[in-house]
Amino acid sequence: MVCLRLTDGCGHRFGLLFSRRPALPAVPTRFESGKPCSPSWLCMQEWRGLLEKRETLRSLSVTDLPVRAPHATVGLVKPTFFDRTYAINPHMCGEVDRRLAREQWAQLRAVYERQGVDVRVLDPAAVWNGLDGGVPPPEAQPDMVFVANHALPTADGEGVVLSRMATAERASEPVYFESWARTEGYGVQPAPTARFEGAGDATWHPGRRLLWGGYGVRSERAAYDELTDRLDLPVVPLELTDERYFHLDTCLSPLSETEVLVQPEAFTPASLDRIEAVFEQVIEAPADEALDSFAVNCEVFDDLVVAGAGAPETRRRLEAAGYEVVAVETGEFLKAGGSVRCLTLRLGTPA
Q1: What Cα–Cα distance (Å) separates residue 120 from each residue in 55, 156, 170, 190, 344?
Q2: Rounded to an integer, what distance in angstroms lies between the CA atom of residue 115 and that of residue 102?
Q3: Contact, 71 vs 346, CB < 8 A?
Q4: I want to staple 238 with a disulfide (CB 3.0 to 4.6 A). Which of 43, 163, 232, 271 is the partner?
Q5: Does 3 participate in catalysis according to the annotation?
């Protein structure tokens, strides 16, 4: 165990213990340039890897982690080819009214734009025209509208890590996204070698370089072993065991650094313990609303929550916590197992 006794610029003394990765060399207190290492950089060297033990997480103060700027850009995929032509999750049923789906998507886009959000739209037909052969055409990609599954934005927002889809039906979607992202100016990193369905299963802690990683249904735990080393950041792994909550974004939505919206039935007891160890306030969405209306599948902009309609009790609980809720009708997309967050990918600004 290594203990560093440090003094910050205000004369306050503090200590950092390094014991979780004994194979690592002792952490320096100065960079090669001679400039002192900042407390936040030192904290990142301590709090990295997969953070799993409850006592470890209880000793973590997220305010000690380096600040991460908000991902202020929204990526959407034009729903021209959206339909339900197969069933790859328990929620997929019914015939889609494609005209109504396009109207609902346009309403969601309008909500974002009214908030002053920079909205960037991937047009599958336009991207297809620039792709080489061997990729299925956009009409064979009815779920491409669920852009959250295509990639994970990097912490600085200047790049993305591509997804490795778990199902054959959606395997080609990240090819479209990669082409579009490069055109938009984002740096593109390859997918992990293990299954990984992007921001559908991985979500950033608000304002901090800490990643929450869902696995067990679509994504594999091994993907986070790779991502924590590649991106040099800590990941809190959360195991999902119920196929009705097939992505993390169906059952967990961080609202702020201290508050989170969850549906606890989706998690193993150990995973739920990890959530409760980090967040000061855990707001539970009723199971029926989480399953029938995808109540947790929402997007958050400061104190504004954009959520699907049809979850009155979840809305009441969010408003009681001080949030304004804007409800958007997403009923046609629910027929394919998606709602607001599935339709949205939060991005940063390209370098």
Answers
A1: 41, 18, 22, 22, 10
A2: 20
A3: yes
A4: 271
A5: no
Domain membership of residue 239 (yes or no) is yes
Contact at 8 Å (CB) between 14 and 6? yes
The model's pTM is: 0.87
Assess whether 8 and 111 both reside in one domain: no
Report if residue 58 sits inside a domain. no
Active site residue 342: yes
Instruction: Tell whether 62 is covered by a domain.
Output: no
Q: Backbone phi, then psi, for 162, in 5-degree steps?
A: -70, 160
In this structure, the answer to whether residues 200 and 305 fall within a common structural domain is yes
- pLDDT tens digits, 324-349: 999 999 999 999 999 999 999 999 99
Kindly name the residue from 43, 251, 298, 342 that is annotated as catalytic. Answer: 342
- For 312, the token pair is 């009155």
Place of tokens 């991005």: 347
Task: Give the model confidence (pLDDT) of 144-193 as tens digits.
Answer: 999 999 999 999 999 999 999 999 999 999 999 999 999 999 999 999 99
Residue that the structure tokens 């869902």 belong to: 214
In the chain, which ranges are continuous DSSP H helix? 39-46, 54-58, 98-114, 124-129, 173-184, 222-231, 269-278, 287-292, 312-320, 331-334
DSSP string of 19-34, one letter each residue: -S-TTSPPPPSB-TTS
Of 71, 247, 251, 298, which one is the catalytic site residue? 247
Q: Which domain holds residue 41?
A: 2-24+35-46
Q: Report the side by side order of strands in the sheet with 299-301.
A: 299-301, 304-308, 324-328
